[in-house]
Amino acid sequence: LGQLDSAIFHIKRYIDSSIKYEFRVGAEAYSLIGSCALARGDVHEAEEYFLLAEKELKEQDILINKNIYKSLYECYNSLGKPEKALLYLEKYMTLEDSMDMSQKSFAIAMMESEKDAVKLEGQIHWLTENNQLHKALNHEQRQQKNIVYGSTAFILVLSLIGFLRFRKQKDLKNKQSLVNERLRISRDLHDEVGATLSGIAMYSHVAKEQMKKSDTAEVARSLDIMQKSAGEMVTKLSDIVWLINPDQDTIHQLFDRLEDYGQEMASVKNMIIKMDISPGISDFHLPLEARRNIYLFCKEAINNAIKYSCGKVIELNATDEPGYLHFSVKDDGIGFDQVTVKKGNGLTNLNHRAEEIGARFQLESRPFHGTSVELSYKLTQ
Description:
Order of helices and strands: HHHHHHHHEHEEHEE
Number of strands: 5
Low-confidence stretches: none
Strand content: 5-15%
Mean pLDDT: 83
Largest sheet: 5 strands, mixed
Distance between the termini: 20 Å
Strand order of the largest sheet: 1-2-3-5-4
């Protein structure tokens, strides 16, 4: 259907599920993502997934191998890397020649098989005439039983190996998830808190110099900035602690947090916050990553409405439909023309938060008719 982003999303789900349950992902899945990325013009992402596909290649998957080598040739050719492009072109041509030889060998084998079949018919006819067909059939049945017993034993051995491998990879995945969560918290602390602490340290040195000059007005200004920065840091730390708390994962608790944040800011501009949660979803538990991005999405939208809307009311709503949860922030302010307005960091951040969890972002606004932003989160993810 040409919906490349959706295709990539679902293939990644398949890969994640395969890894989770210890199944081999295979080269074809990575190759499919690479093809979608290449079709939408993202050559670097395509290269990344074709290289992953190459790592998963098996000798017997000649057709898949050939397609991956051809795609990597196209990627490096587009990226202006002729040496790598030539390398994969040579691999592709080698397999192409190999397939031609295989097809010829297959045709010869088929001809030989036909000859053997004619001979076998003559033998069966001879056995029938000599009353030996019954013995031949019994012998074949014994062979089939031996094959069944051997196959069963082989499958049992593979199952045992697969189970042990599954246990090992599950332990590794749990450890990796813990490491990833620690890294994300570390990044948040560095990005959100580190910069603020650096600013406070700088202004403390400035205030000392201003005190030496008895410049009380500038000292007061520096202290105000430090006080404001410290308050912002406390809020950011509070958000980080709240977001990783597994006991705060329902939609109702999410809206309570947003209401506290919104009312404190809205009171400065004499605005009010209204909340509405559809019946039946108030106690719905959100996954950690979804809860984090939905919270930051709504927080950003509330902040934008308070800063720019010049309205009186901000509505925060959560609704549902089969397979989806919808979160919206609406105001009754001055709105804007979506065609002519210059998109700033606020709208970019909203779109980024939605993309992080595979959600859909929608913006509606007209001059003097308010603004509405909505995030639609798919429950089947």
